[in-house]
Amino acid sequence: GTGMQTIGITLGTSNCVGTPTSAKADRMDKFIVANKVQLADDIARGEGETIQGLAQIMNCGQSAELGSRLQSKFSMIFESHDMVANQITDRIITVVGQDSELSAACGVTVSSL
Fold first, then answer.
1. d(CA 16, CA 14)
2. SS3 helix, strand, coil % of the chain, rounded to 5?
3. Sequential pLDDT tens for the chain (113 residues)
4. 94, 8 contact by CB (below 8 A)
5. What's the rounded Cα separation, in Å, for the pair 90 and 29?
6. Count of CB atoms situated within 10 Å of the CB of 69
7. Are 92 and 54 in contact (CB under 8 A)?
8. Torsion angle of alpha carbons 14, 75, 98, 2, nearest 10°?
9. End-to-end Cα spacing for the chain
10. Any residues with CB less than 8 A from the CB of 89 and at least 6 apart, and which?
11. Quick count: other Cβ atoms within 10 Å of Cβ 83?
């Protein structure tokens, strides 16, 4: 819980700061609101149209790698059915930020806490 919130604030994804990362997170939030169920299904499978769409929003050229990494962290990303979009966004950005190759490809960095 607390670690995720701290990382979200560090990345500017909790809509606290007007940064390029927060703008990206805002676009991700809107995408997740519209596609939450399908995104959960696609992340569970590690592939699909919503992962490709998410990769575009995140400016990741590697949707297959993104899908694989998100699939491996599915239970952490979708901890419960009642999670809201910005919680899911923060967790996706955290997962991507923890993978050096993927974070470089997507332009996501996690500041040291």
1. 5
2. 70, 0, 30
3. 444 444 444 444 444 444 557 788 899 999 999 999 999 999 999 999 999 999 999 998 878 999 999 999 999 999 998 999 999 999 999 999 999 889 888 877 665 33
4. yes
5. 9
6. 19
7. yes
8. 50
9. 15
10. 13, 25, 28, 29, 32
11. 16
CA distance 50 to 47: 8
Geometric angle at alpha carbon 16, from 86 and 42, rounded to 5°: 20
CA distances from 3 to 6, 47, 50, 62, 84 (A): 5, 27, 27, 27, 17
**Distance between CA atoms of 78 and 94, rounded to whole angstroms?**
13
Place of tokens 């979009």: 85
Please give the Cα distance from 30 to 22 (Å, whole number): 12
pTM to 2 decimals? 0.78
